[in-house]
């Protein structure tokens, strides 16, 4: 009997250990599911516009790239025929770039550009500087200020969708010229070209970044809405474009694409 009792106790202990390990596994699995829900790229995502911009593909093969210069990368993406869906930005000690790709796939982006920049950390030199300033000014130091702080990074991601070939093919802004003699800045004529989409009618006619478009056909361009209306009016036609390139006034013709 004692032997049987010992074996039963041993079997009960083994069952308890297996049950405990299984419970631990379930707990770890549940934690992983919870952690997966805490995607900072998703939590800090901001749409660029009210429209439902997304990939033209039902199931896009989303690509992720690591960038270094956001402004230059943005222009390149526009010139390559992509439009900005939205961005994510936040500060954290660590954020896996794979989470940016995960969110990009969930919103059906074609490309996500990821950026990481050093933000701050409490280093030995910064603590020494605090001590020097306190000694110089005769002030006191908060002990919490001398504790080792975690390194923080700024994370940023931009999400892009490929557009169909446009009717004209430019991205423009309205520029204003500051004047010290006027209460309000003076608007410059026309629309400044910030990006020309490759292989578009605007690209083929020789329009380049930095040009100012003054007229399209008979329409004088003062706002982006003016350009939109003019392109809509002359869709599929060959039309004159008046522009300013530096100090030179130029008139060229462009064959606008037709709607498909």
So what's the oligomer here? single chain
H/E order of the elements? HHEEHEHEHEEEEEHEEHEE
**Uncertain segments of ≥5 residues (pLDDT<50)?**
1-11, 13-36
Number of helices: 7
> Outline, from the CA principal axes?
flat
- Radius of gyration from the CA trace? 30 Å
Structure description:
The protein is of the alpha+beta class and 260 residues long. The chain is 34% helix and 29% strand. The chain is built from 7 helices and 13 strands. The strands form 3 sheets. Strands 6, 9, 10, 11, 12 and 13 form a 6-stranded antiparallel β-sheet that branches. A 5-stranded mixed β-sheet has the order 1-3-5-4-2, with helices on both faces. It has a two-stranded antiparallel sheet with strand order 7-8. A hairpin with an 8-residue loop joins strand 7 (176-177) and strand 8. The chain is flat, with a radius of gyration of 30 Å.
Q: What's a concise summary of this model?
A:
The protein is α+β, with helices and mostly antiparallel strands and 260 residues long. It has helices at 2-37, 40-43, 70-79, 97-106, 124-137, 201-204, 224-233, and strands spanning 45-47, 63-66, 82-92, 111-120, 152-162, 170-173, 176-177, 186-187, 191-196, 212-216, 219-220, 238-245, 248-255.
Structural descriptors:
five-stranded mixed β-sheet, single chain, alpha+beta, 13 strands, flat, 260 residues, 7 helices
Question: Helices, strands, pairings?
Answer:
Elements: H1 2-37, H2 40-43, E1 45-47, E2 63-66, H3 70-79, E3 82-92, H4 97-106, E4 111-120, H5 124-137, E5 152-162, E6 170-173, E7 176-177, E8 186-187, E9 191-196, H6 201-204, E10 212-216, E11 219-220, H7 224-233, E12 238-245, E13 248-255
Parallel strand pairs: 2-4
Antiparallel strand pairs: 1-3, 3-5, 4-5, 6-9, 7-8, 9-10, 10-11, 10-12, 12-13
